[in-house]
Amino acid sequence: MEEMRKLLEVMEQLRHPRTGCPWDLAQDYASIAPCTIEEAYEVVDAIERGDMDDLCDELGDLLFQVVFYAQIAKEEGRFDFSQVAEQITEKLIRRHPHLFSDSPDGESQVADHRATWEQIKAKERRNKGVATQHMGALHGVASALPALTRAVKLQKRAADAGFDWPVIEAVLEKVQEELDEVREVLEQDQGAQRMQHEIGDLLQSVTNLSRHAGIDPETALREANQRFERRFASVEAQCIAQGVTPATAGLDALEVMWLRAKLAE
Questions:
Q1: Which candidate, 16, 27, 63, 72, places its Cα nearest to that of 43?
Q2: What is the pLDDT of residue 104?
Q3: pTM of the full predicted structure?
């Protein structure tokens, strides 16, 4: 593809030892990793706003991150972009046997695609660990993921291994149990470290509740943040109209404004 070839050439020029861009030459895997995370979130933001022109632009920025990593690896003699593309192509074919395999049980695999997908991924993880060490069910869930996303992935792995609540009602009871423990720590003034521990357990339980309900907690929290921003902006506007500030309006008045903003939605 001509456009892809041109992009790779531009990347090579940016990293040329003598004539390249000083900033690009100074980067390594670790230094551009935060940029990759930021670009991924900007892709999500464009999608949520429904801005397809911006999405095209942001996808380009994200693709550049992949090309950047591949160029550094090429310079080190590790791999290049073509190997990255080759490996993901092989992986997609391997994980979709119902589409790319002549196996006679292809139709049954379609019916239980998720189970087949997870079995193939588990086999891939085992194969990676053959020459090193035994890998548990939770091995390989990236520690750099957002905490909510990582919690869901860990819980899914544990569930696939048989460690899961059978019904959502049991998860609700666990959430209540963890909330009671937070209240106990607060009432007994057991300190910040203990409170952090119990709130972490509570968040883990709420995340598990989201998973059982079929809701992505990252998406749910982003939407909740957006609602909070809109409603608080409405509260600020109401304060201005009344000649007060949120700091001087009083909690009771602010609550009335908040409910008014909520009802307006």
A1: 63
A2: 55
A3: 0.67
